[in-house]
Amino acid sequence: MARRTKSRARKMLSGRAFLDTLVQCPQCHSIDVVQYGKQANGTQRYRCNNLACPRTIFLLHYHDKGRLPAVKQQIVAMTLNGSGVRDIVRVLKVSSATVIDVLKKNNGPLKS
Ligand SMILES: [Zn+2]
Q1: CA 47 to centroid of ligand 1, rounded, Å
Q2: What is the mean pLDDT of the chain?
Q3: Ligand 1 center to 27 CA (angstroms)
Q4: Cα of 55 to ligand 1 centre, how many Å?
Q5: Ligand 1: distance of its center to the CA of 68 in Å?
Q6: How far does the centroid of ligand 1 lie from the alpha carbon of residue 29, in Å?
Q7: Which residue, of 5, 20, 53, 94, has the fewest CB within 10 Å?
Q8: CA 66, CA 94: separation in Å to the nearest integer?
């Protein structure tokens, strides 16, 4: 009986370690994440447990690049360097709706 509980504990530990090494929040790079249901197409969804992080739900592999923080930052950076919406669409290969969406929502860096 003692052996059974020990092996179960080890299994749980290794499962936790597996999650820690592979899954990271794309926004704050926290490893304090949990599995959080699935997308309609069956892709695993994750949730970031870091309270200071603005991102709550994320996926490991995004189908649409406009959801990635790196691409969003690039959109803001290109705008600050004088690129128009259609320039950004051509270079980053995201839709114009995505570019406008990101610029509307992103009012953080401009305030400070
Ligand atoms: Zn996070």
Answers
A1: 8
A2: 81
A3: 5
A4: 5
A5: 13
A6: 6
A7: 5
A8: 6
Determine the distance separating the centroid of ligand 1 and the alpha carbon of 9, expressed in angstroms.
27
Contact by Cβ (8 Å): 69, 77: no
Domain ranges of the chain: 1-61, 63-112
Tokens of 15: 């499962």
Residues composing the chain: 112
Query: Alpha-carbon distance 85 to 100, whole Å?
Result: 7
DSSP 9-25: HHHHHHHHHHHHHH---
- 20 C-alpha to ligand 1 centroid (Å): 13
CA 46 to chain centre: 9
Nearest-angstrom CA–CA distance, 55 and 69: 10
| pLDDT band per the 50, 70, 90 thresholds, residue 67 | confident
In this predicted model, what pLDDT tens digit does every residue of 18-55 receive, in sequence order?
Answer: 554 578 888 898 889 999 999 998 889 999 999 999 88
